[in-house]
Design a protein that fits this description.
single chain; globular
Amino acid sequence: MKDILKAYNVWKARGNFPPDADKKVKLMCSYCKKHNASLFLIHMMVELKVLDLLEDACESLLDSIITEK
């Protein structure tokens, strides 16, 4: 998670993010099953797999919502 926060701080310096954006980034990445969240920055910079990470997290988030119901 520390790598994610470091990346967030870089992005925050470049753009206009809401005050709670860091909490949303941590929460979304916590749903990843296929990708190790600590490797997030490496995937971003080297392979640009942001959409793969989001797809992974969204699938897991949906599974979590369905399980709760």
